[in-house]
Write a structure and sequence with these properties.
The protein is an alpha+beta fold. It has one domain. It has a 5-stranded antiparallel β-sheet with strand order 1-2-3-5-4, covered by helices on one side. Helix 2 packs across helix 6 and helix 3 packs across helix 4.
Length: 207
C-alpha cells in the first residue's frame, strides 16, 4: 500500500503539464473559479510524530491536495483531492469563523438554503453507489430563531461544513490523463463552492 501511494504521490507532486508544477496547480487552473495554490497545497506524506501515540505509522496512507478561495487557506472555501492506494476523494467546504457561522445560518435558514440543499441532494443521488458524506461539527440544538421543525435543521446545526465523495482509483492514475480525470470530478463540486463564496465567505475574517 505504501509503495502504491508513494507512486501516486510522485505523480501528484511532480508530474503535470508543466514540468515543475504539482498536479493540483493544473487542476485549479482548469476550473472556472479563482483559486489559490501554494506550497501548502500539497500536504506532506510524513506524519507529525510529536503528538502521536507510541508506535504510530511514520507515513500517512494518503496524499491530500488543496486549493482555496482568497488569501487565507484556513478560512477560505476550499476544494480537496485525497488520494490513497485504492480510491480518490473529492470535497468542498470550509471552516467557519464566528462571522461566517452567522452568515451560514442566515443563508441556510433563509431562501438561499433551498439552493444548497438542492445541490447536496443532486450530489447524493449522483454518487449513491459511492462513499458520500455531508460532514462537519454540529451543535446539539438548532440555533434560534429556527426550530427543529426547519427543513434544513441538520445544516443549521453545522459549525463547519464539508461535502465529499470517494470513487475508486483509476488504473491510469500515474499517467498524464489523471489530472483531467480529477478536474472533471472536482468540477462537480463547483456549484457548492460558488455558493459558499457568495453566501458564507467573509474577506475580512477578523470577526
Amino acid at each position: 500500500m505504501r509503495r502504491a501511494t508513494a507512486a501516486i504521490a510522485r505523480r501528484c507532486t511532480a508530474v503535470s503539464s508543466s514540468p515543475r508544477a504539482p498536479l493540483i496547480e493544473d487542476v485549479a487552473a482548469a476550473l472556472d473559479v479563482p483559486l489559490t495554490t501554494s506550497r501548502g497545497s500539497v500536504s506532506p506524506l510524513h506524519a507529525d510524530l510529536r503528538f502521536a501515540q507510541a508506535g504510530a505509522p511514520r507515513y500517512k496512507d494518503h496524499l491530500l491536495l488543496t486549493a482555496w478561495h482568497g488569501p487565507d487557506k484556513k478560512t477560505g472555501p476550499t476544494l480537496w483531492i485525497r488520494v490513497d492506494s485504492s480510491s480518490v476523494g473529492f470535497a468542498s467546504g470550509m471552516a467557519f469563523t464566528p462571522a461566517m457561522r452567522e452568515r451560514w445560518r442566515a443563508a441556510v435558514g433563509g431562501s438561499g438554503g433551498t439552493r444548497i440543499a438542492s445541490l447536496l441532494d443532486e450530489l447524493r443521488v449522483r454518487h449513491g453507489r459511492h462513499e458520500f458524506e455531508v460532514a462537519g461539527d454540529s451543535v446539539r440544538r438548532v440555533p434560534p430563531p429556527w426550530t427543529e421543525a426547519h427543513p434544513r435543521a441538520d445544516l443549521l446545526r453545522k459549525t463547519g461544513f464539508q461535502v465529499r465523495f470517494r470513487v475508486p482509483l483509476p488504473r491510469d492514475a500515474v499517467r498524464p490523463g489523471f489530472g483531467r480525470w480529477c478536474t472533471e470530478r472536482l468540477s462537480e463540486l463547483l456549484p457548492t463552492h460558488r455558493w459558499l463564496v457568495k453566501h458564507v465567505y467573509v474577506k475580512d475574517t477578523a470577526g
